[in-house]
Amino acid sequence: MNTKPATPAARYDRSLALARHRRLPAGTSPPQPTHAWPAENVALLAHYRDWLLASGASPYVVDHLYVPVAGHVLGLALKPHPKLDLERDLQRANDYIQAKQLSAEWTDMNRNAVLKFRQYLRQQRGQCAPAFKTPDLTRYQAGLPAWLVEQLTRFQHLRQAGWRPAHRDQAILNFWSHHTRLWRWLFAHRSVRAFSDVKRQHLLDFMDHRLAQGFSPVGVNGDLRNFHSFLFFLQDQGWAVPQALLRLRGLAEPDRLPRFLTDAQVAQVRAGLEARAAAPPRRVQPRDTLLDRAAFYLLWQGGLRLGELEDLRLSDLDLAGRQLLVRQGKGRKDRAVFLADSAISALKAYLAVRGSGPSDHVFLYRAEPVHKDLIHCRIRYAGERAGVKVTAHMLRHTYATQLLNAGCPVTSLQKLLGHQRLNSTQIYARVHDRTVADDYFTAMAQVEK
Length: 449
Prior knowledge:
The structure is a single chain. The longest helix is centred in the middle third of the chain and has 22 residues, at 168-189. The N and C termini lie far apart (88 Å). The radius of gyration is 29 Å and the shape is globular. It has helices at residues 8-17, 39-54, 59-77, 88-99, 104-124, 138-141, 146-159, 168-189, 200-212, 217-236, 243-246, 263-278, 286-301, 306-311, 341-351, 372-386, 392-405, 410-417, 422-429, 434-448; strands spanning 317-318, 323-326, 335-338, 364-365, 368-369. The chain has a 3-stranded antiparallel sheet with strand order 1-2-3. A two-stranded antiparallel ribbon has the order 4-5. Helix 2 (39-54) packs antiparallel against helix 3 (59-77). The protein contains 20 helices and 5 strands. It is mainly alpha-helical and 449 residues long.
């Protein structure tokens, strides 16, 4: 009668004994079983399995892929794990996997498992934060004169003081994409070589060109605002900037109201997430359903932005005080967010199964800090399951409109949302202005008589 091995080491020894080595080239040495390992490596393999399970990985995948591949690394190196070279020793495991000449799909899965073990080893050594590397800006700077690149670089350094460190590389790319679009067009389509060559008509031509390509007035105005902000920077640096360029007005934009969910739509999405958290579908990790529910409550009942949710740390939570702190939110401003009982309950349920990670970020996915794009997709899919179109930012709009409809003063809502200007908050009052509504129904009652 076959019995399942009791320990990860025993499981690896069994998988090694059953491994197919007939295709290995002559002279290729296979990994050694665990009795030849240093004792600390045997303990490490067991800890690695626990770490994987705590991060939400499938037990089947852990036992049949991740643990055996980690065993290959340890069985080939035969040195205490603190002395493992994360490049050469892990490459030996990749070479062994390639030499087995298995299917391309299985080989790729094994290589990904090597990367997962490398991630774990880096976390154990405290090497979690990758070094920041300046993105390649060649495509945005090509064709621009040295004086313009130099001034834009100085402007970038000034602006990046207000960017979140976690997304600085992407923010740099966005800066150069947005701030060079008009300039690149000027140098490619107009006889512009120096700053003094730029004329008001050139800007009007660019706006017509973008509109003819199908871009919206909002996008065209964004290009113009970026151009103007750079001109003001040049003016502060002592450059002579013609007022005709600064006074150019943008295009008329539609005055849209915020997009929010009705109470019934919120209830549908909420009911779907609660049901999945209570009884996770087959092949769905219970931890992931609790993550989805906790994120939903913070977006809906806390009004958090996606980036703020992504950057949230355990030290920012004060569940006993029924609040959390958003640090370095939009505009690098801190604020307090208060939590309802349902949000606190959802957070506690998730934190109970959160597991460990490389940092104290509240939300982890597969032992790594969650990325905002993942949350965006999971919230959108939750809406699709409930038959409701929903995004994370729509939940923030819903938070604001529901609070105003319940009588929350607009000045309090301004602080809760983290708006610097009251005008940004007043847009929600246009949707739920009870005074206007009461005046209408009072007048209509008289009309109907």
